[in-house]
Amino acid sequence: MASHKPGKLVKAALEKAVDKVTELVNPPIPGTPGSEPPSLDEPTEPRGPLPPKPDQTGPETVSPTGAPTGAPQLSRGQQGEFLTTSTGARLHDTDHSLKAGERGPTLLQDHHLREKVMHFDHERIPERVVHARGYGAHGVFVGYGTASNVCMAGFLGDGVETPVFVRFSTVLGSRGSADTVRDTRGFATKFYTKEGNFDLVGNNMPVFFIQDGIKFPDVIHAGKPHPDREIPQAQSAHDTFWDFVSTHTEATHHVMWNMSDRGIPRSYRMMEGFGVHTFRLVNAEGETVLAKFHWKPKLGVHSLVWEEAQLAGGFDPDFHRRDLADAIESGAYPQWELGLQIMPDSPQQTFEGIDLLDPTKIVPEELAPVQPIGMLTLNRNPQNYFAETEQVAFHVGNLVPGVDVTDDPLLQARLFSYLDTQLTRLAGPNFNQIPINRPHAPVNDMLRDGFHQHAVHAGVAPYRPNTLDGGNPFVAKAQDRPLVEVAQPLPRAVKVREAPKSFADHFTQPRLFWQSLSPVEKEHLVNAFTFELGKCYEQAIKERELLVLAGVDATLCAGVARGLGLPVPATARLKKVTPSPALSQVGHTWPPDGRIIGIVVDPADLDGVRTVRETVLAGGMVPLLIAPTGGPLGDSDLVAQRTFHTARSIEFDALLVAGNATDPRVALMIQECFRHAKAIGAWGTGRTALEAAGCGTGPGIVVDDDPSKVLAEVTTLLGAHRVWDRFPPAIA
Fold first, then answer.
1. Residue 418 labelled as part of a binding site
2. Is the backbone peptide bond immediately before 68 cis, with ω within 30 degrees of 0?
3. Would you say 642 is a known binding-site residue?
4. Looking at the structure, do residues 256 and 139 belong to the same domain, yes or no?
5. What's the whole-model pTM score?
6. 138, 204, 525, 552: which has the fewest C-beta neighbours closer than 10 Å?
7. 273 inside domain
8. So which residues are the catalytic ones?
């Protein structure tokens, strides 16, 4: 008699169909570690390597000299189904050394042991002296064509798509430090243009600590951990840092930015980027202008509050890199608009009284508006952190036709330093042949040999002019668009170690920054100074920094002095400045794309949860269901992504509460979100949870019987990032 039970093939097809339906109802939450779910038992049937996840790809497959190879991305990864040596010999065992008997000594002839341990011993390369902790992503830049009147660079042309790799980083900490420390963030972008690589190596702050690159070792030595104890790690709240900046008042402007909310971004996706220096742009007619580069995030500029940063340091030290990777994996691709501030290229190289060669100065956007010239979208995660993010090598001297440097003394030193550091980190002069650094333009550089030479050069005459190689390579003529340094007249001068007199004003722009902030941002700035200086041991250093702050603003100085319990120094007569609204993070409205919504579920009202979850997904946001335990919720098709044990408020941009009024962990989550000025919504028994937590009413607290109305109002509140009205600041 024929069996009515489905066969293996039919059963597998049914299970696959069920899985597909479940995936449509419950789209996978970002963070899955592999490209397919693991089996419970160890696989024993040989098979080839799994493909990468859909959000991952490596560098483009070009040759060491920039030629497209046509090879698939997977050709760089592991090949075949069997474990082999590095030269391809298959291995039958990798768990036991070759011994003289099972209890005997290990034999010197064990070539597999030697190779395996040798390579392991050399897996790590020297980490970067600064910007050691970073995270990168691949993407594409599309030019608007709006820069053609000032810059001839081909990648800025209308509709031109250019592959990019971007690396975000902190400055002071080691690779093992936390993401959410108060620090400057690197924002380095490598454009693989058809005219060669262009590296825009900037920060999330438009100014720097120092005016001359010769002081760079000094400021980094001061900011790094104390050399005797190697503490504190990844922070500036210690004596040597404040000793330096209080004796080098040119650092005051950058210190103001660092102590502001800009020092602890909410996310790389919500972080501005700046080229810091003034560059010289050249158009097709040879005309020049001076310009500053800006990256404007589509989601707006937003920061963590101080308590969130502290919680994240322990709860999730990888907070920023996880946020970026998850956003890309879930399809919420981060975007930034590249813009230019354009100033005339005058002999003085100043604009509205601002010295454009001083890297501690900004040009307020009200004086020179930022003009959009293209859009950056990050849409692919790296396949391998070491091969890509760790080995990417940036250099401010990687320029393309249309972009030139200026005589900014910090920029001039960076032009020297970047090549030097790659020689040590990447073990030789051929670091641009590493796949992540390879240009996507033809390379014929006459450079030969050296460590890690991957190119196989032909010909016999790596010099020019030559006749033995038919004259190749030839120099480019004007019509071939070569990279040409702009001819600049040099003043008749004697060699001096001095700075221009215009570099001497160290306080007007820090005062401009302070006066441009909203009251809540000013309060945060005072608190940051108070905390950092409060961690210093030496009283003289605290008093000296108060003297510096007295040159910025009396209210700022008094607030910090009060927090430190020190007398307020006398304030000199300060310059009047016109505030720049563009410097404040508060007062704008931004799209909710990619925001993370925590939903505390009520098992008795899963219909409301389902409706809200689907609406959150449709709005381009990420819903995370939080329940007492993980797994399926009751008999429904809903699955909890977080539990009361694993969830913490810092992960969510807003919190919705549908129930579980009595659990103290829910109360803690609500109270933290309340303290951090986040929007909170509730319906059903969730109202009781808010009341039990002492957060039942107030600005940004939304309650209603209809879950959809609650979500709609919370989404509106998200446009401003936080509900600052909940805590009126004491500073006007």
1. yes
2. no
3. no
4. yes
5. 0.92
6. 204
7. yes
8. 131, 203
